[in-house]
Every structure is written in structure tokens, then in C-alpha cells.
Amino acid sequence: MSEVLSTGKPFGRFERSLAWRYLRAKREHGGASLIAIISFVGIALAVAALIVTVSLMTGFRQTLVNSLIGGQGHIIVSTHDLPLEDGLELIEIINGLDGIESASPIIEEQVLVSAQSGQAGAAVRGVRPEDLSVYPSIEADDIAGFGEGRKGGNTIIMGKALAARLGLGVGSRVTLLGAAGATTAFGSKPTSKEYLIGGLLSTGSVELDSLYIFMPFEQAQLFFRHKGTMPLVDVRLEDYLATDIGKRVIAEATGNRFFLRDWKQHNAAFLGALQTESGVMRIIMLVLITITSLNIITGVVMLVKNKTRDIAILRTIGAGRGAVMRVFMTIGATLGFAGAMTGLVIGTLLVVNIDGVEWFLNTVTGGEVFPADVYGLEGLPAELDWATSLTTTAYAVVMSVLVSIPPARWAAKLDPVDALRFE
Fold it and tell me: For the CA atoms of 360, 366, 369, 373, what is the dihedral angle to 10 degrees?
């Protein structure tokens, strides 16, 4: 027996079977089943909580980014009311550049929307009917009459939330009042015209859907006094994150004649806050996993105290200190691995079925735990980040092994003579 114990492979069959036996031992037989269960559950819940939290933060950020870049260009070129013919030539130049997906003329102005049910401020974007495909939140086939008629017609697309707030829908008529109007002896007269709502815009962000109205470009030229000119160019990139490269390419191709701004600059404070919040949340949850992993120390320490006689016998018949240490390290690693993998499965299932989870929480609380009017989003967003999930799981396993080392070293240093003397 002495020869077998001394020549066994590290973390071999004997050490693994002994660790598994100690884990399964009943409490009256010196086992630490209760502590093991607490450690296992704690790590599983911590890992699952971090996966769900990070997935919600990722989904929240991605949903808002998608809504932002769906409603505005990746890069906006200010042409200072460039003549329309020159502006179209500029668009052809930009469309021929590397990394550019599309470039189209737009007009952006503020208006007052007036209906029988009330009034509200809105941002009007003038776009050509053929450019509606640039906006993923708009289904062009579902919009009847947009851009049809004299001077672009009188059909507009209104944000879904804005229409709901004013009690409007497809087929309703509204009056838009613009600040730019004809100059009279008594001052500037606001422009006013009635329009037909031909479709609803849904970006996924209630805040943006409460703001935007899309108008045919030709009609916007007339309404906002931009006849024969092109004030802005909406540029879409193949990679919406590569705005710095896109701006440099456009500036070089146009001789730095125009002012360029991208969606990151326009939303810098907002994106910075999201990034900071996400980073802080990750740190907090990693600290939680670390603290939870410390429960394993308690479990292994109690197990060592209960198995003092067994350790002494093992040492007496030839087991080395390294073998004893590896047995108790295996116990801690097993608890950490099982808890981390269980947490990974639970967290993944919760994220994948986030709609069902939200419905369950709403049912249990009798209300809406994620109200759209407060958070500005339709539904609870979640996007599973496999890299973060697997990293979190690995971190929990590594921490479980590391916190098992001190009590395992203590077990390995026990003197078998002293241990048996007090038995």
C-alpha cells in the first residue's frame, strides 16, 4: 500500500476517488455536505447573476446604439446649403470611397406637431423615398404614398410613440408648424401645413420614437426653405464603429471642405456613461464571485478538521504531503467547477428566455418591472455575450482552486503522530 500511495500519479484515480468520497460523506461521518452545498449554490448564483447582468447591459447598449444609428447617420456631412447639383456630385464621390455603404441627402429641422388631441415637439428628417432602405426600422413596402404627388406629396412617417401620445395612427392627419417661414412687415411667419401619416417608425427606443418624423426630401426642401440646396449628407459605413477612418477618408476625398461629425460625437456623454456603468458592474459582480468563492475555504477547513484521523492514517501508510494537498484541492476545484458550470447553464437559460422571465416577474409583482416610459425601451433587452460568460465561468473555477490552496496546505502539514495522539 505504501508503494502504491507514494508512486501514484498526481491527481490520479486514487486522489480523485478519495476527494469524491469525502464530498459525498454524510455529516455524521465527518463530511462537509452542508458547507459544500452552500459553496456550490453561492458560486452558481454569482456566476448566473453576472452573466444575466452583463447580458442585460450588452443588450441595453446594443439596442440603444441600433436605435441611434437607425435614426441618424454614422457620419453627417454639413454642406452649408450646397447647391443640389453640386451636392449630388458630392454624394457620388462619397459613395465611391472604400468602407462607405451609402450616402444620401437629408434635411433636419424642428417642428411643432399639432393635432386635435394636443401638441408636441418633433424632429423632422427629410429623406428621399429611395433612401428609406437605409433605415432598418422602416419597412418601405408598408408605407403607402410616401414621396408620391406634387413636390413629394403630403405623406409622412411618424414615430410610433409620438403617434400614440397624440392618439394618432396610420391615416390620421396632423399639422406641422416650422419656424422658417415667409418674412412679412410684422416679422417672420411660421410655415404651417397639414400632412397624412402613411406609416409608423419604430426604432426600439421609445425616446427616439417620440421624436422623429420622416418627410419626403423634396417636400422638406419646400417646407423648410431649402429649395434647390442640400444642407446635409447622411453617410452609412460598412462598419458603424469605424467612424474615425470614415471621416478621414471623406475629408481627404473632399479636400477638407466640409464639417464632419459622427454618431459617437453626438452621443459621446451617453455612450461614455453606458461604458462606465458596464465596467463598474462587471467589477462589482467579479468581486461578488470572489467573496462567494471564499465559502470554499470554510468548507475545506471543516473537512480537514473532521478528517484529521484519516489524514494521519494516509500519511502513516505512505501518502506524501503533496498527495494530501491535492486531494483537498480537488475538493475545492470540484465545488467551484460544478457551481460555475451550473451558473453558466442557469444564466444562459435566463438570458435566452428573457421575455418569459419578464412576463413571470410582471405576473408575480402585479405590475410592470421594466416600464417603457421610464427606461425608453420596448421590452427587456438581453444579448448573450459568450466571451464574457465563458470568462466568468473560468474565473470562478480559478478562484475556487486558489482559495482551496491554504486549507489544503494546512492539511498536508499535519503531523500524523500528533494527529493520532489526540484521537
Answer: 130
